[in-house]
Specification:
Elements: E1 2-11, E2 14-24, H1 40-47, E3 55-60, H2 81-101
Antiparallel strand pairs: 1-2, 1-3
Length: 102
């Protein structure tokens, strides 16, 4: 479903990650754990197509959607974190229902 091949990301002279490889197949559950500033959010932005890596490729299965709850809320939004989570859960339930029906 998702294949990451040799991606790297640096900011100035600071390397967040290099030669990163990852394969996620349907049904996999993964956790991304690391200290603050280690590049977790940057990696998620790259996987979701919201940022570019410096090198390497990210390939997702056709018609797949990569989504995640961003660490930072949208500037100017009056939505609380709880409401964002509940809204996201509702969307996920709707998607699961559509998948189950087809």
């Amino acid at each position: 479903m998702l294949s990451v091949t040799n991606i790297s990301k640096t900011y100035g002279n600071r390397t967040l990650f290099e030669s990163l490889n990852l394969n996620v197949t349907e049904g996999d559950r993964i956790a991304l754990i690391g200290p603050n500033g280690s590049g977790k959010s940057t990696l998620m932005d790259i996987l979701a197509g919201e940022a570019n890596s410096d090198s390497g490729t990210v390939t997702a299965k056709r018609n797949s959607v990569i989504g995640y709850l961003k660490q930072e809320s949208v500037p100017g939004s009056n939505t609380t974190l709880l409401n964002s989570v509940l809204e996201t859960a509702s969307i996920a339930i709707d998607i699961k229902h559509k998948i189950d029906v087809t």
